[in-house]
Fold each of these.
Amino acid sequence: MEAEKLAEQNNNRDERQQALADAGGARPNDKNFIPVMTQRANEFFGPGGFDKVIAALNGLAKEGHEISIGKAVEDLGLTESHLCGAPYGEANQGWPHCGECSKSMTFVGQLNTGMIEDFPESGPGLYTIFVCFACNHAANESPAPPGNGWLVRTYTTVSNGSRIRPPRGTKETPARPMKTNDTVKTLPQWDFVDKLDPDFVDMLVRLYPPDVESLYEKLQAVALGPDHEAAFSHVGGYPEWLGGEEIVLCKKCQSPLSLLLQLESIESLGLKFGDEGIAYLMYCPNHPADTSLVVQGA
Ligand SMILES: [Zn+2]
Ligand SMILES: [Zn+2]
């Protein structure tokens, strides 16, 4: 039995060694990995083969809008995008309370997509985002229904609303403007690539069969350039899931919700989504009132 196991292990190791040798011998973290892949791509897919691979990858890119947070200000417009401070609200809309613990929720921020130039996904919308940090854990199995741990109010038109104020005794952090003007390229995580472009996946499998996921990550770094940061806050584009894809369907059209806002924890503003976690506000571009807030930890 022991000998059999040992033989099997050796076999597996031999297969891996062989696959690695077949793939030009380079390992993903070697300095010469990309040069070796470039050479192989040019052999397999003709002159400029590597450029074709990168072009196919860039074909999957979605434009997002990078978020930068400004200094605390007093005189923000009622419907401007911002974090903290007080939200826009309309008549009869009070401060939301959590459906699970019945405590008042914390206002995270509001996003006005009508103020983003060329926002590609949908018409204008103002979204005000509330969270109950006590009930909204990164460890939650599946996203809770609206009202339980989170609430997002969507306004596709704004009429005669005003700033609504939290219940007395709540500490209010001064509003910080949320700027969303810089566009940024985002690429899908490996898990989604198969669904998006199986032909591209076939190319990658030919190039580097031993570890196609690592190859994809290295190619992402080439396509995104050296200044790219991981898991940054942005509007639109692809979500960068910390804990695997979370699919939520629109209740009206049953299509999977898209990313509207990916927001990193900002502890200095009291926004802590689990352990260095990220909040993902998902929405349906065709039914913007259909939203879900998913929190995942590092
Ligand atoms: Zn709660
Ligand atoms: Zn829908």
Amino acid sequence: MESATNSGTASPTPSVFSLSTTGSSEAASTPDTHRSMLFDDDVAGDPLDIAAGNSPFIMVVGGLGYIGSHTVLELLKEGYNVLIIDDLSNSYENVLDRIKALASEHFAAQGKAMPSLHFQHLDYRSPAMRSVLAGYSSYSVVHKPSMNRFPYSALQRTDSGIEMNDEADDRMVTRVSRITGVIHFAAYKSVEESIRMPLRYYSNNVCGLVDFLGLLEEYGIKNFVFSSSATVYGEMANCGVPLREELCVHHPETFQDHDGTERRMSPGVIGLTSPYGRSKFMCESILADLAVSDPSWSITALRYFNPVGCHESGILGEDPRQKPSNLIPVIATVLTGTKPVLDIFGTDWNTPDGTAVRDFIHVVDLARGHIAALAASAAGRVKAPFRAYNLGESMPGHAEGLGWPYSPTVADDT
Ligand SMILES: NC(=O)c1ccc[n+]([C@@H]2O[C@H](COP(=O)([O-])OP(=O)(O)OC[C@H]3O[C@@H](n4cnc5c(N)ncnc54)[C@H](O)[C@@H]3O)[C@@H](O)[C@H]2O)c1
């Protein structure tokens, strides 16, 4: 699926706009849609079978953050049990209470019991993650899928010579996890901070992911959804062309262009401008390589455009512990007087008002996109072991799309 592009990089000198709150409050809503455009519509209504005795869980790493918290709520509403891992480096524990309150209200209205919601206050790079995963797994004796080498260990010496012990060794002990899928949000995301502290970003976003994947592999957990970003398109995002997933690949790929011509893409991207952007590209490459080496993985990278909005109750939203850099929290700091003005970067783009055009997506749509991706993989509907999808609206948005009386764009576009 393709999505509209941002229309340019920020010009070096910000123009300063005072924020007026006189616009219509109705216009400020960013209503979410209710259908998955990417995956089959029926998949989101087809959750993993949580009634089947040993209670599967979905593990959401970074699940108390902005996008994670909305995703956890939607997962619960779809009937999934959820295990959240979060170190609270950019979120607050009270988000957990808010998710619980909203989910229990939802299930109370339906007269149904709420699925389980577990939380571990942990850095996902911590050695304690092994104990957490152990707690959700058991051992099981299974038949080996095939004998692809001579089974020496199945030979036994008897009085009449050496014989095959056909009872032995066609079985093995394996770990079976109740965690049937993982959604990974745990990353640092400030473009500006990543330039000042690249090692901090590579350590969490890249090294953390590598070790985590190794751990998941040990526990046989191979249905994985990764939070990527439209930033992986690099310079292409400023060319004013629709961004197709095939324009950024990690292995050579052939695809049909709009006019039917066949195009071959080589791996790589031009013009990544920050360690944050590079970290997302690197993570995607690592995931794509892993999928080639072991096609039993089902990995979906979701490339987000600009998530905005909040849960309709207003109880969940974007409430970062660190200095905000995304558009809406920055606007909130101006509205509350913490910041005097809103800096808008870019005035000379080829757009009606000269400001950048961006593709905004409602955070609840984004949350549902993750569930659709997980469920599609679990149902075997995603054929390739690694796939990337854009999650955007495909509709370029100026400020009017957000309902404010100004045209916003902020410096830090994650
Ligand atoms: N918000 C955006 O505009 C945007 C756009 C594109 C991609 N993304 C990606 O989406 C993901 C989620 O973004 P968000 O806006 O919800 O960010 P967020 O900071 O609100 O959420 C991330 C959560 O992960 C937690 N976390 C970070 N490192 C951790 C670690 N080592 N162990 C455990 N928890 C950890 C944080 O405490 C936070 O709760 C990120 O990977 C981000 O790069 C975000």
